[in-house]
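Workshop exercise sheet. Pairs work together: one partner reads the sequence aloud, the other fills in the structure field after running the prediction. Swap roles for the next sheet.
Pair: D.N. / O.F.
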Amino acid sequence: MKTPSSNPVTWRAILLGLLLSVPHIYFSVQTPTPTTVSLVYPVLLTLLALAAGNLALKRWLPRVAFTQAELITLYTTLSIAVAFSGSDILQILMPVIAHAYRFASPENEWDTLFFRFLPDWLIVKDPAVLIGLYEGESTLYTLAKIKAWATPALWWSVLLIALTFVMLGLNVLIRRQWIHHERLSYPITQLPYALAEEGGSRAFFASPLLWVGIGVSGGIDLINGLHAFFPMIPLLPVRSIEIGSLFRDAPWDAIGWTPLCFYPFAIGLAFLMPLDLSMSCWVFYWVWKMQYVMGDALGLRGLPEFPYIKQQASGAYLGIAVIALYKGRHHLRNVARRLARPVGTAEERTERRQYRAGVGMIGGGGAVIVAFCLKAGMSLWVIGVFFAFYFLLTISLTRLRAELGPPVHELYNMGPDKMLPKVLGTRMIGQQNLSMFALFWGFNRAHRSNPMPVQLEGLKMADAAG
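Structure field:
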């Protein structure tokens, strides 16, 4: 690892990252797919271009060439910006806060059922504004529309920033345990770190295996893309070969849609995954399918939601978080000792400052979250249970990304907004809390673009580069 003084973060990298965030956010909104995978490809392509261009700068204008630290800063900044604007945060939150008053009707009686539980400062109610949003042929940039959106946008921004501060504080506390003590592999960081190393190196771009990989995977995509426009070009069937339809007799026909896919990017990332975890993904996929078969054989398929896959998965994610925290209990005890001990070596004092900053972010962000929810009318105990569930889920996701590096992680309808009513019952939670749960779906839909794993991956690359 390099010494910190040899590789500092610069204001130039921070400002450039903020400027480049705008086109990256625009692209991710127009093309939602970048945020549905772990390795955000528009950001990776930008890093690739910067690293390639930096080779010329290092030769002809070395004083203005980017350093490794600057490229890592740019990559992390852009990844977090794209995550925020992704299809599981802002792209869901914006329609959610406009949905109720747009689709209310005399038939569904939403106005009498729950409108009184929706805080005016969190939603858009003006019919004229909503018509433009849903039907188009309009513009946001009028005074009336900006005023209608300004208050909800401000308050939701406060909540999202508070959530991100808590996530960053948690990452600061667990960083040393997962990076130095357990030495997790962080597969998602391997390619961007290799691109950023030494500010971009000729050895990386001169690798024959790199170009073979690009040629094979890119060639497959190119041929299949041309097939979409020119059907006479043969299709290479790598995306989905359906084998579930081969099972026609009961109970095996209950296996359902079972695609066999050969995604080059997934195969490549699988090489970076620990073998036991890669095997686990494969085995438990078939365990899931066999539950459908056994359920059909035992006559259980008529039960609602059987075999309760989402509930099983939600419990598994919570279990992963609890196990990860339990494995790090000695480290967390050491964190507490560092915070309580005002003196020590220079390294211990540095650690103490970092941990104090982490605890401060968790405390400050948590206080804002609680104040936000109390202002919205939620019960204090529900706030505690909901966000404890939520942050355990994000810790679990971060752990999976750090240890396993899954190409995709989709927790669709597995968040606390869906699971707590199933566990506690809607009557115990209450109408006000349930109405807020519906609004919170904007950042609980599927967690594919959750920013916490991106933060820790940035810390991992920063640690490796000094």
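Discussion prompt: The chain is about 65% helix and 0% strand. What would you look at next?
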